Amino acid sequence: MAYRWTNVVVGAGGYAPNIVFSPVERGLAYLRTDMGGAYRFDAKARRWVPLQDDNGVPSYMGIESIAADPRDAGTVYLAAGMAARLPAAILRSTDRGAHWWITPVPFAVGGNEPGRGLGERLAIDPDRPATLMFGSRHDGLWRSDDAGLHWAKVAGFPVTGLGTPAPRTSHGGVSFVLFDPSSRTGSGSRRIWAGVADPGAHHLYRSDDGGQSWQAVDGPSPALLAAKGAIAADGSVYVGYASDIGPSNVRTGALWRFDRAGGRDITPPGFIATGSEGAFLGVALARSAPGTVAVSTINRYRAGDTVWLSRDRGEHWSDLGPRSRRNVSATPFLLHEGKGADFGHWISGLAIDPFDARRLVYTTGATVYATDGLDRSGTIDWAPWVSGIEQTAIITLISPTGGAHLVSGFGDLAGFVHERLDRSPQPSFTDPYLSNTNTLDYAGTAPLVLVRSGSLYADRPRDATLGWSGDGGRSWRPLVVPPMGTPPRREDLVGEAAITVSADGGTFVVATPEPRLTRDRGRSWQVPEGLPGNTRAVADKVNPARFYAVDVAGGRLLASTDGARHFTPVASTGLPADLSGASPRNREAQSALVATPGVAGELWLRIGPALYRSTDFGHRFARVDGGLAVELLGLGKGGTIFAVGTLGQVYGIWRSDDLGRHWARIDDDAHRWGRRYRVIAGDPRITGRVYLGTDGRGLFYGDRVGESE
């Protein structure tokens, strides 16, 4: 079944650790992201093109390094792998990323690990482009002499690696590799530099014999790690140092220049004057204007992150921050935290266009900014350079029966009401503002009433993690659940409690350890009898008195006919005795129990990969998956069902028009997005419309080709 898939526009939205310009073709640039793959800028179309939408290996969407060939504009390499213990590969393309040769490698790659802003780890010898080097996190320095097809460990490199780290930890490893273009021989560069971001006595090494032997190069205090490096045409090397691999927890840093006279501290005085807070994870040189250097800070909380610019190899510096102005009118979502467009956070990608020294770009944890005004003495104007980039993690979404067709819950960005799918949304998920929206629900017959639950970064104060809206999500009010337990505790502030709203919007039920319900918008609360703690209730989408819940421990379906005041077991037939497969994996997981919009008493229950349906309020169930092993389920208009799952040996996105008896695949081999799917839902008002939330490639909507509304 042919479907057309389109990104819902946000405009970037996630962490892009670095951006790399092609040194041989004007206007050609590549962007790497930590969990959404790589992008290429198409100068003719004036937009970014995703390069890995056909990838079906989840780990390969984490890009740790990118290298553009110094001679051939069509050739580009990616170091792909999400984290240690996950598959890793070097990808090579000769057509600007339209197609890839994939070479699995024996070393781990950490595209989504701490330290992903270091680099670049992957480097191409400009004197012999078939020679590549890769600085691994855990296993030393590696080399390929056949364009990435085969790799061997560099035996002479003194830092051999620390081995695979413990779970949820990481190593910095060999943080960058630089071939000296001034040391060409015609058969390979003789001088090579490598930085190291693991604890030790030395953090910078140089080889003068093509990588056979290496010597340590003295720099700042051994407490500072070599984080980012750049090399000029004359062989001068600029190194940004940091106390930690980042992007968080960086306390201090320094900037050094190394040339034939030795190493020298060229840290901007303004950085020192403000307490040397944070570090330098962005270092860029202007190829067309020798001596021009730019550096960016990261984790400079008190003074704010900034970019410094030097025209004389770091002898004197200008702080661009105070004279910078940002226009985010094309991506207003950036104002989601309720403050103006600041300089940005997690700035680790910084680049000067090799063909235009006026053009400087930098990446943040949420966007990419660009300016053409480095030659100006006054105000420097910046704007997001993100058209085509959609790099977000969607946790949950709903398509209500009225109001906006799509309301989403994001990781890090809170969530949005999507009035239009082709424009970046205005922020509205405030009061309370929550960085993550974990659950959303709407009232089936009063769809402008919405409820949400979420969580906030641990270092920020919170008064509520629950909210409700009466205008379709355009404005919100917090819900505060009174303390419970002994000693009394605000269990709702933990951020684990899902919230549900009745069909008429009059009753809210919260899945705290001692469940609570309110019928007066949180002014008073009651305890639902018979509903186990931490159990998410599901409201019938038509009958406001009816709620349902799965008691996994008791192996039974529960129902309420009095607006969630009392829950009693349903004598259900057709279900297995073991309901553990309906238990949520975490607070962000979709509910295994779903009520059909517009149909009273119709329920769908996923137990593991099996799908069951009831049309009589849960009394009788029939298995209806048609052999599809279901992972995610969504309901659309006119009884259409959408699912993510496996049929036979084929994993994909599926549609059924006969209540699950038969399924047609609606994705294809060009649209797999790493198979990193989080949530799916049909549109109850548009025939065949489906919404899909990914973990890193943003939010999509799909329409069947030729199907009318």
Structure notes:
- With 709 residues, the chain is mainly β.
- It is built from one helix and 55 strands.
- It has a five-stranded mixed β-sheet, with no helix packed on it. The chain has a four-stranded antiparallel β-sheet with strand order 1-55-54-53, with no helix packed on it.
- A hairpin with a 7-residue loop joins strand 6 and strand 7 (76-80).
- The longest helix is centred in the middle third of the chain and has 5 residues, at 269-273.
- Belongs to the glycosyl hydrolase 74 family.
- It comes from Sphingomonas aurea.
- One of its GO terms (molecular function) is hydrolase activity, acting on glycosyl bonds.
Kindly list the characteristics that best describe this protein.
mainly beta, elongated, 709 residues, five-stranded mixed sheet, four-stranded antiparallel sheet, 1 helix, 35% strand, EC 3.2.1.-, WD40/YVTN_repeat-like_dom_sf
Largest sheet: 5 strands, mixed
From the alpha-carbon coordinates, what is the Rg to the nearest angstrom?
27 Å
Q: Could you list the spans in which at least 5 consecutive residues all have pLDDT below 50? A: none
Q: What class would the helix/strand composition place it in?
A: mainly beta
- Residue share in helix: under 10%
Approximate shape: elongated
* Number of distinct beta strands: 55
Task: Write down the overall mean pLDDT.
Answer: 95
Q: Determine the N-to-C terminus distance.
A: 17 Å
Which strand order does the major sheet show? Answer: 26-30-29-28-27
| Tally of DSSP helical segments | 1
Strand content: 25-35%
Keywords: Carbohydrate metabolism, Glycosidase, Hydrolase, Polysaccharide degradation, Signal
EC number: 3.2.1.-
Pfam family, one: BNR
InterPro entries: BNR_rpt, WD40/YVTN_repeat-like_dom_sf, Xyloglucanase_GH74
